[in-house]
Amino acid sequence: MSNIVIAGYYGFSNAGDEAILCALIEELKKLGGNLNITVLSARPDKTASEYGVNSVKRSSLVQVFRAMRQSRIFISGGGSLLQDVTSWRSLYYYLFLMTLAKKLGLITVLYANGVGPINSPINRYITKAVLEQHDFLSVRDEESKSFLRKLGILKKAIDITADPAFTLKPAAPEQGAEILKTEGINPEDGSPIIGICIRPWKGENKDYRHVLAKAADFISREFKARILFLPLHEGEDRQESLEIMRLMETDSLLLKGSYNPKELMSVIGYLELLIGVRLHSLIFAAAVGTPFAGISYDPKIDSFLKSFNMGPIGRLEGPDLNDLLIKLDDVWRNRDNMRRKIKEKARKMAERVNEHNRQLFKLLNIMPS
């Protein structure tokens, strides 16, 4: 039996990170019953119940140490784990786990990560030193590979894949329709639904809220659409959505329930357009073929949009209302053409992840016999 420990930002009710975990576990379970998976989580009981795996408290060194001692492979799950913009503490936490796993003799894997920005010279040095000891490095975009090369990781192979969430299948359309009806929206009444997925901005300037509220009013009136705010991080995104909704002149709705990534993907499948700040809102839209427009707050958004031959329609730190409205109008007029291109590109992204997984699992010697 191969024991595997998976680490990431899990158990925090962030649909994007949970989508990564769900996709990875599903792929591992396809290999058969000879794998024993343990996930480090903020809410181990919930994680164990949802995914049918073992789970331990990520903040308990004793539990983490014990899980690693009983394992052969350590996987640093996808997402933006290695960056110091959010906090140095988070970066050091993941680097510590990687170092501990290596000291205990585990095979160490950086799996489909988005790496950077890492601005501090000491943080860049430490990250380079830790990753150079890894057995397998893979990133989700060309920019992350380029960043690692700039750190000085020159002799190790770095595979490029796509975000694991591209392999997720949405819940049945009937589930998405039922969720919308439960939330007070009839998807069959004829008027289009436009989704907005926002996240908090830590900068001092909060003018973006007024700009986004005016933009939402514009698309509600001009496109004769119903506006639905979709929180991907249940606590902070919901509060931020409410702040913008209060500034709007037109009516809008907020998805209030707690839904897993597959359910959210099913809901997004009913949208005519998704406007997203959260990366995984854009990934979910792409995966189900829903036209989308991204507002950037981080290089990972620019990188993702670039992979679809798009650019951001605005930036969270200082969006220009007139420019935003012009670009939204253009997206709206071209959404049918976008839909076809998005579906094809998302299919290729999923194929890339599947091929990456095959190669990785073969290297780790956990392919079915």
TrEMBL record:
InterPro entries: Polysacch_pyruvyl_Trfase, Polysacch_pyruvyl_Trfase_CsaB. Residues 14-299 form the Polysaccharide pyruvyl transferase domain. SUPFAM superfamilies: UDP-Glycosyltransferase/glycogen phosphorylase. This is Polysaccharide pyruvyl transferase domain-containing protein. It comes from Koleobacter methoxysyntrophicus.
